[in-house]
Amino acid sequence: MVEATEVFFSVTKLFQSKDTGLRRMVYLIIKELSPGSDEVIIVTSSLMKDMNSKIDMYRANAIRVLCRIIDGTLLTQIERYLKQAIVDKNPVVSSAALVSGLHMLKSNPEIVKRWSNEVQEAVQSRAALVQFHALALLHQIRQNDRLAVSKLVGSLTKGAVRSPLAQCLLIRYTSQIIRDMGNHSQSGERPFYDFLESCLRHKAEMVILEAARAITELDGVSSRELTPAITVLQLFLSSPKPVLRFSAVRTLNKVAMTHPMAVTNCNIDMESLISDQNRSIATLAITTLLKTGNESSVERLMKQITNFMSDIADEFKIVVVEAIRSLCVKFPLKYRSLMNFLSNILREEGGFEYKRAIVDSIVTIIRDIPDAKENGLLHLCEFIEDCEFTYLSTQILHFLGIEGPNTSDPSKYIRYIYNRVHLENATVRAAAVCTLAKFGFMVEALKPRITVLLKRCIYDSDDEVRDRATLFLSILGNDDGLVETDNDSREFLFGSLEAPLVNMETSLKNYEPSEEAFDVDSVPKEVKSQPLAEKKAKGKKPTGLGAPPPAPVSGFDAYERLLSSIPEFATFGKLFKSSSPVELTEAETEYSVNVVKHIFGSHVVFQYNCTNTVPEQLLERVNVIVDASEAEEFSELSSKPLNSLPYDSPGQAFVAFEKPEGVPAVGKFSNTLTFVVKEVDPNTGEAEEDGVEDEYQLEDLEIVPADYMVNVGVSNFRNAWENMDPENELVDEYGLGPRESLGEAVKAVTDVLGMQSCEGTETVASNARSHTSLLSGLYIGNVKVLVKAQFGMDNRKEIAMKLAVRADDQSVSEAIHAIVSGG
């Protein structure tokens, strides 16, 4: 710190230098050193003098440095100069002021928002960078006023933007508005789509690519809307510029995930890119072809892939492996050639993520294609013979313990497993002991041999391995034949945690040792889903200059803490489930309201998250009046209004209802937002004393059966199913009517029940005529539920479903069937 201060004072002496290059270094050093409040005063006068200099380079740099180092008090003194700089004729000075405004918007938003008129004028500038920076700043100023943003975009889409960079920003803002407004307007046409399509004919390549990408990422995009974008991208595939080829093939690769048929016209052009010198382009081309190709082209594509796999980095190899995994699910008859390819590359050199991707792909193939099981397990056994990654070895051993005992000849895997006990580290040895025990328990003929092997393990050097061997010997040596003991052993060896492992870990870390023991039932059962890369691609939010403000933190733990801190709700008991937020207002309204449904045993609490998007208004005594006339089983207990709701400061209002204990009551609720609105002076920020009472009609809200189900997964569905009492199983058949695809029917049933798909069964091949979906969940009252849903489609696209339900309580099995028949 002392050295930095000495450097700072020495550098300030160089303000007397006339050397342009040296002066630029002075500005850079001062900005990077970020002097304290006492030191800033020393250079402020020099910088303010330079800000009014006749040399434009000094002016631009002085503005950038001043805005970085001064606080809000000094900022008001130079605000007039900054406003003048924004509309300066010199584009370097103007851009410097605009970029400084973007930085200061985070720390002094009220001051920057007063520059709107000057920034609006700069948007009309002929200088490309000035227009780009001005548009970015103007959008940031107005981003919380959706109507103002819509008007800004509407005016600029008529042709006022000349800068290609600004045009790209405008396309991003337009895409965001389209997402906020919903898929289509009342006339059936997508708003602003014509503007995006017109950008495909722009003379700048970056604008064309941005427009094509925006069109392909539209929610629910149709084939007709995709066609012009695909046509443009196809032309770029044969461009001499590598960056254009890469951008085009990457965009087409993303489109192929959701609309593979739309990309098939580009297959010939992409096949020529397989031999491209840029291996990134070649990788994207081959993975796109894997997604869009037909069954007859699989063999040819696999030969081409083999030729260049050794030339690309691991990150691109992972992309290829994931594409092959999807291809195998799509064309199950080709599993042999695909499995052989995966087993060959598994033996080659590679990093952990690459090897894990291959193992995951083989596991997926084994689970989805029964014929591939034995061959795939042998490939995995051969891999762990020479595997350097402990995590992968333990995961494969665990998987072997689940699937191996159910094969035609389980004994052939024992050698590979027992080798791990002699040749690996303690973690892998412990996993191998568990796997051996599972074979011994499930395969009666192998029990004596397994017992001998486990007895050898009790002399292991590691205490964890010895303890496990002793425990499993005790289980295997239990010959009293009691069914109850047998079921307990099965549950211990093959059962899964009732709560997600991440939630269990978090709860254990938060537990403070006391006289009260840790309660496993207190661990949240809600599955905290991790978004996949492909999910991120769809409907992706803009980043950087176009990024929206961060959303408030939410989650089951946060909700539980919030509700328990409110005295009115503290006596409701343990929270069972919190829903995802449900929007109750349109995208462009002046007040934004969404609701979270909190489900308790005999109560329901509605949490209304309110945001005021009108800068000139302050809302007080904000409350939601709920009409429950269409929800007869619910009676309102209490409400907790919001005292004050300033502009752009989210707040919560609550309404609590009582319902019958443990009963999945449903109903519809009408909502009206009531408040007192007070005008706010834009200059002083103070609200008027007198206000006007007003109300705002919100959308209706429904409590549905899925609100009483927590989507909890199980690691091994088959064992969990077998451990459930068959006496509680109920089976029935249903006609689901005509559907576009089996996938649509699977999603509809999963959504109605609110359950978690297991073992990847949520994925349905596009050409499938039958499918089995495995679902699990926790019903209100903490009752475990498992569902097997078998779907079939006839030539008229009529869907039939056979539904088998097992639960810890037979009445819950009946309730699940009632939900399906009523939904």
UniProtKB/TrEMBL annotation:
It holds the Pfam family Adaptin_N. InterPro entries: ARM-like, ARM-type_fold, Clathrin/coatomer_adapt-like_N, Clathrin_app_Ig-like_sf, Coatomer/calthrin_app_sub_C, Coatomer_g_Cpla, Coatomer_gsu, Coatomer_gsu_app_Ig-like_dom. Residues 4-478 form the Clathrin/coatomer adaptor adaptin-like N-terminal domain. Keywords: Cytoplasm, Cytoplasmic vesicle, ER-Golgi transport, Golgi apparatus, Membrane, Protein transport, Repeat, Transport. Residues 520-549 are annotated as: Disordered. It is a peripheral membrane protein. It is found in: Cytoplasm; Golgi apparatus membrane; Cytoplasmic vesicle, COPI-coated vesicle membrane. The keyword Cytoplasm applies. The keyword Cytoplasm applies. Residues 706-820 form the Coatomer subunit gamma C-terminal domain. Residues 558-703 form the Coatomer gamma subunit appendage Ig-like subdomain domain. Coiled coil: none annotated. It comes from the Eukaryota. Its main location: cytoplasm. Residues 522-536 have a biased composition (Basic and acidic residues). The coatomer is a cytosolic protein complex that binds to dilysine motifs and reversibly associates with Golgi non-clathrin-coated vesicles, which further mediate biosynthetic protein transport from the ER, via the Golgi up to the trans Golgi network. Coatomer complex is required for budding from Golgi membranes, and is essential for the retrograde Golgi-to-ER transport of dilysine-tagged proteins. Belongs to the COPG family. PANTHER family: COATOMER SUBUNIT GAMMA. Oligomeric complex. This is Coatomer subunit gamma.
